[in-house]
């Protein structure tokens, strides 16, 4: 029996979970928000009890200190010696990491080289790694990459149709993200279907603020909607997803913006926020849409239709599909989006039961028993994957 902390360090936030393994039992979980900003918040739930503190947290070093202090204070651990391993989420592993890895000095130097590919995410993840190393130098740590699961994609899926040299010289290719989530839900789907994962074809729809679809054949990712960065693929909360690349210079010229500013619009002011004009949050959009706001209805239709088309194309890529999975905030909770996405897929054997589709936040089949293609809602659990890999790679 060991205790593992799973960490997801962002630039101003740090999400954590303390798990007991191999039971996969959550002992404590929480979030530190607004690190280095005004009014930082530390929140943690242990034994069903939630505490929230507002106190000065100037940097990640402070965040790690307060987290370790509160784990002891709330009796989640009796001393820091109780912590057996730390698993860190790292967004980008490039082509060099097709599996999680034990963190060493060489590994950190390697991660730093990859920051070029994910300048917004990897540096914050690496800061988290270094601060835990300083605070708990004797505890083994493992890095788990968002990109690793997609490293099985064939070249025909990950190559862009641009000069081949760009791939070789600059690493320009599709990497894909949310791999830890797609891997977790595909494994659960095989268990729920009671079939070996090697024998099934799955389409996994991870629909949160960020959203991506993956085609998983025999347990291996063979294609996914995000690309070189998480901007590509389906419409998201604030990201545009795919568009004609010629639009970028056109928008630059029309709006007198720099390339960087246009990218900022595509990342932060587009998607459902851009279409609806008022929110990126699906809950707000659903409320407005139900009251007849046409732009809210349009945002739902744009979002759902993109996902619908990916399902069709990934079914074509795999010559069929055995099950479609919905996960993350929207996938787990929104019957409205699931219904829209799945409408008109009867031609390929998808028959959804509207009563079962009402489920929220729980594992459940929402297709009729006779539906040749099953549809399953599966809450994702990236932390458990991080903890499993930490136990495996640190030999705990
Ligand atoms: P992130 O990508 O930030 O991890 P989440 O997986 O938490 O995002 O998903 C956030 C999205 O899920 C938001 O658009 C939110 O509105 C939506 N969501 C969460 N709960 C519900 C709900 N009960 N009904 C509809 N949408 C929901």
What does this structure look like?
This protein is α/β, with parallel strands linked by helices. It has helices spanning 60-73, 105-114, 122-135, 155-158, 164-170, 179-193, 247-255, 259-268, 271-276, 282-290, 294-317, 328-333, 335-342, 382-393, and strands spanning 2-9, 14-21, 25-33, 41-46, 49-54, 85-90, 101-102, 141-145, 201-207, 211-217, 220-224, 323-327, 364-365, 374-377. Helix 7 packs across helix 8 (259-268) and helix 10 (282-290) packs across helix 11 (294-317). The radius of gyration is 21 Å and the shape is globular. The termini are close together. The model has no long low-confidence stretch (mean pLDDT 97). Residues 208-210, 237, 281-283, 286, 328-330, 333-334, 360 line the site of adenosine-5'-diphosphate.
Radius of gyration: 21 Å
End-to-end Cα distance: 9 Å
Please state the overall shape, judged from the principal axes of the Cα atoms.
globular
Q: Could you give the count of β-strands?
A: 14
Structural class: alpha/beta
The strand line-up of the biggest sheet is 5-4-3-2-1-6-8-7
What's the arrangement of secondary structure elements?
Layout: E1 2-9, E2 14-21, E3 25-33, E4 41-46, E5 49-54, H1 60-73, E6 85-90, E7 101-102, H2 105-114, H3 122-135, E8 141-145, H4 155-158, H5 164-170, H6 179-193, E9 201-207, E10 211-217, E11 220-224, H7 247-255, H8 259-268, H9 271-276, H10 282-290, H11 294-317, E12 323-327, H12 328-333, H13 335-342, E13 364-365, E14 374-377, H14 382-393
Parallel strand pairs: 1-6, 6-8, 9-12, 12-14
Antiparallel strand pairs: 1-2, 2-3, 3-4, 4-5, 7-8, 9-10, 10-11, 13-14
Helix pairs in contact: 1-3, 7-8, 10-11, 11-13
Bound molecules: adenosine-5'-diphosphate.
Adenosine-5'-diphosphate binds at residues 208-210, 237, 281-283, 286, 328-330, 333-334, 360.
């Amino acid at each position: 029996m060991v205790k593992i902390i799973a960490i997801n360090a962002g630039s101003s936030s740090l999400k954590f979970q303390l798990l007991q393994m191999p039971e996969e039992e959550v002992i404590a979980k929480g979030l530190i928000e607004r690190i280095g900003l005004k009014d930082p918040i530390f929140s943690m739930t242990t034994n069903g009890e939630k505490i929230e503190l507002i106190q000065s947290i100037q940097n990640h070093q402070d965040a790690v200190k307060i987290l370790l202090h509160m784990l002891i204070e709330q009796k989640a651990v009796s001393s820091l010696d109780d912590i057996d391993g730390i698993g860190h989420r790292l967004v980008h592993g490039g082509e060099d990491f097709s599996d999680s890895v034990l963190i060493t000095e060489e590994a950190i130097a390697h991660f730093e080289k990859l920051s070029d590919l994910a300048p917004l995410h990897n540096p914050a993840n690496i800061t988290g790694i270094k601060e835990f190393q300083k605070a708990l130098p004797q505890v083994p740590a493992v890095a788990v990459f968002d990109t690793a699961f997609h490293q099985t994609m064939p070249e025909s899926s990950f190559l862009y149709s641009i000069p081949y040299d760009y791939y070789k010289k600059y690493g320009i290719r599709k990497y894909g993200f949310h791999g830890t989530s797609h891997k977790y839900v595909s494994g659960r789907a095989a268990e729920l279907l009671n079939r070996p994962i090697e024998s099934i074809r799955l389409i996994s729809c991870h629909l949160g603020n960020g959203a991506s679809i993956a085609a998983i054949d025999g347990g291996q990712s063979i294609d996914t909607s995000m690309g070189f960065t998480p901007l590509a693929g389906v419409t998201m909360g604030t990201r545009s997803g795919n568009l004609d690349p010629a639009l970028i210079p056109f928008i630059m010229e029309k709006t007198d913006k720099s390339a960087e500013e246009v990218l900022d619009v595509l990342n932060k002011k587009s998607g459902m926020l851009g279409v609806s004009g008022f929110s990126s949050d699906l809950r707000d959009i659903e409320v407005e849409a139900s009251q007849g706001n046409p732009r809210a209805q349009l945002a739902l239709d744009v979002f759902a239709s993109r996902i619908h088309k990916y399902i069709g194309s990934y079914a074509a890529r795999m010559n069929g599909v055995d099950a479609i999975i919905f996960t993350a905030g929207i996938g787990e909770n929104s019957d409205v989006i699931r219904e829209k996405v799945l409408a008109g897929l009867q031609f390929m054997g998808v028959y959804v039961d509207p009563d079962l589709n009402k489920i929220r936040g729980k594992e459940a089949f929402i297709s009729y028993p006779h539906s040749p293609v099953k549809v399953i809602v599966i809450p994702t659990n990236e932390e458990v994957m991080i903890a499993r890999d930490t136990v495996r790679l640190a030999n705990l």
